[in-house]
Amino acid sequence: MSGGKVLVIGGGGREHALCWKLADSPFVQQVYCAPGSVGIATTKKVECVELDIKDYPAIAKWCKENEIEFVVVGPEDPLANGIVDALTPLGIKCFGPTKAGAEIEANKDWSKTFMNKYQIPTARHKSFTDAAAAKEFINTASYPALVVKASGLAAGKGVVVAANKEEACKAVDDILTDSKYGSAGSTVVIEELLEGDEVSILAFTDGETVSVMPPAQDHKRVGDGDTGPNTGGMGAYCPCPLITPDQLLDVKDQVLQRAVDGLKAEGIKYVGVLYAGMMVTKSGPMTLEFNCRFGDPETQVLMTLLETDLYKVIKACVEGTLKQLQVTWNTKLSSVGVVIASKGYPETYTKGCVISGLTQVSSLPGTEVFYSGVSRGANGSLVSAGGRVLLACARAGSLRAAAAAATAAAALVDFPGAHYRKDIAHRAFTNM
Ligand code: AMP
Ligand code: GLY
């Protein structure tokens, strides 16, 4: 066999999609995934390896012994903890920003100051470490200062969109006074409430050039019609029509390119994926947040539409030659992913339930299954092992057809207590 070997760090549905797409490249001989998962290991050409992802010298040693061409880092935590800073000097090429670059996600206070400095459109805000001062601001601000955020990484949980000033003040107490998110909440960012449609705009970058991916939309709430508690994401679709082509160009120039240029001006060469969480308001797209990595579950749908070989794209990013590569996407198809979750999720959920219907789903044309929380039961069958268990993804010639196919695929997968949303992409239909 010829071709390169690559290592993906992580083990969720996003990393499954990245492994699947990398394995599809004729230039890739073997994809390794650490720690990976039982589900990821079911993919052809993908092998999971037991590496301690905090032990950087051990990872570097293993990469050298196994002639790894580059490492793709999936989640934010290792990036924010400096995995790229540790591996790069040891001669390992990495796709993902350094610790300083990851601040754009891991430190919202820093990120907002950065956005203001480089005139990246975003909600007005103020940061506080003192609860009394924060509450005083909520009560007197000239704009609805109702969004309260823990500045640090809080596994997607540290943001409260308050219905009124009392709720916003309570969020300040939870975060600053009661340390609900530990040190991630030693600073709060209080923001102006923005209204509109949320769209995820991700871009590949080599630190100079940005190559923007088609717009996608995530579904955070657990229930149909965007009801119930927030989750890690119950589904996604792409392309999302809730942002116009002109607005998309603005996001490319005024948000993503400006951020990469600004980071460079700050002495940070940002390589990897820059994810802009945008609110498309009446007065145009505004940046809610940056993430320093691929989104989950956006990546699962995006990878099914990427035409260019992912290995080539990542290689161009790590080698600084992205400008010379034309990254193309399938513009004739839409892709919809429906997450199937365990009973109880996003609260305490059941595990160990035998999953049926997977063979039927994988035989459907244009359909893929990406695993997030799957393990092997005593008799060798696949069983649920997480809150979000898997995502059924379908492509079709229209968003409506793709949504219908993905929902039908999700209906074929079963285990006791399984639940999924039946309305993924609905905002695209009500607004079209
Ligand atoms: P973040 O992690 O900063 O993106 O916030 C998480 C979620 O909170 C976003 O996906 C939005 O749904 C919501 N959110 C954050 N900031 C705002 C804002 N300024 N106005 C309205 N909603 C917001
Ligand atoms: N889908 C949202 C995220 O990955 O942060």
From TrEMBL:
Sequence ranges assigned to domain ATP-grasp in this UniProt record: 112-319
InterPro entries noted in UniProt: ATP-grasp (IPR011761), ATP_grasp_subdomain_1 (IPR013815), PreATP-grasp_dom_sf (IPR016185), PRibGlycinamid_synth_ATP-grasp (IPR020561), PRibGlycinamide_synth (IPR000115), PRibGlycinamide_synth_C-dom (IPR020560), PRibGlycinamide_synth_C_sf (IPR037123), PRibGlycinamide_synth_CS (IPR020559)
Pfam families to which the protein is assigned, alphabetical: GARS_A, GARS_C, GARS_N
Key word Glycoprotein present: no
Entry's EC annotation: 6.3.4.13
Protein origin, superkingdom: Eukaryota
Keywords tagged on the record: ATP-binding, Ligase, Manganese, Metal-binding, Nucleotide-binding, Purine biosynthesis
Enzyme class: ligase
GO MF: ATP binding; metal ion binding; phosphoribosylamine-glycine ligase activity
Gene Ontology biological process terms, A to Z: 'de novo' IMP biosynthetic process; purine nucleobase biosynthetic process
SUPFAM superfamilies registered for this protein in UniProt: Glutathione synthetase ATP-binding domain-like, PreATP-grasp domain, Rudiment single hybrid motif
Keyword Nucleotide-binding found: yes
Pathway assigned in UniProt: Purine metabolism; IMP biosynthesis via de novo pathway; N(1)-(5-phospho-D-ribosyl)glycinamide from 5-phospho-alpha-D-ribose 1-diphosphate: step 2/2
Membership in a protein family: Belongs to the GARS family.
Name this protein carries in UniProt: phosphoribosylamine--glycine ligase
Gene field: LOC113499068
